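Trypsin alpha-3, pasting as requested.
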Amino acid sequence: MNFTKIGSFSGISLFAYLWILVAGGQQKSPAWSGYYMDNGTHYLLYEGPRIKKQSFLNISSNPAINALEAQDYLPTRIVNGKKIKCTRAPYQCALLYDGELICGCVIIARRWIITAQHCKIGKPGRYTVRAGSTQQKRGGQLRRVQKTVCHRGYSEYTMKNDLCLMKLKSPLKLGRCVRRARLPSRKMKRFPKCYLASGWGLTSANAQHTQRYLRGVVVCKVKRRKCRKAYRKAGIKIYKQMICAKRKNRDTCSGDSGGPLVNNGVLYGITSFGVGCASENYPGVYVNVFQYLLWIKKALLNY
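Structure tokens follow.
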């Protein structure tokens, strides 16, 4: 061990280094270019070398979206939410890349999950999905991803069509904490007023520690006209394929990216992007699942 080198570390770096030795090594995260350590309550995040082209700080090729997203320290977080049991959101899953959480996801069939396309940063074999657990790193069922089917019309610039389906190598076992989210009826005429958004993440915009347990928050739909007006100021267009939702001091920010927006077990939205944490000026933006019912059905049949 090079004690001279350790002596040059800051206090927190020294603590991190010693903990790594005990834990058996550091784990780098391709999503936010740091590594986690579990202290029993949180996963402590420490900055490390950035991995090029895998940083969620730039989720879009649109500088206006990235400038606003830069207000968020991490892309995966629920703000001001409360701990929830797995039975409250049994359709919720965690999308892991090389063993690290990068996004939320939603179970729609025993071998299929759905998430945001901007969460796809590598080959299918590097992804795993954890379902049936309130913890992102433990418990439940862990499945490897066999195939990804992403929407061909996805635009990194507009964030339009930000959807990706992932097929699991083996089916999930359904139970109290593992259930499929139902898709909206094609005959639906009106969206519900409020929804449950869930996932893992920070409790506030300035928090430094990623939450260990699943959290949920109720947000309510914002009229498209109002949402468009808000985002127009930032040079961002809101399309009919998007839903906006927020609640005062309770928003999903830009995460949990790929996570669910659900009412009574029906999946209405997938978290796409948002601005700031619980921003009063900008609602969270979700993919409007209703607009993609035919695409989802065809993908599940053809693959």
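Note for the archive: The longest strand covers residues 100-109.
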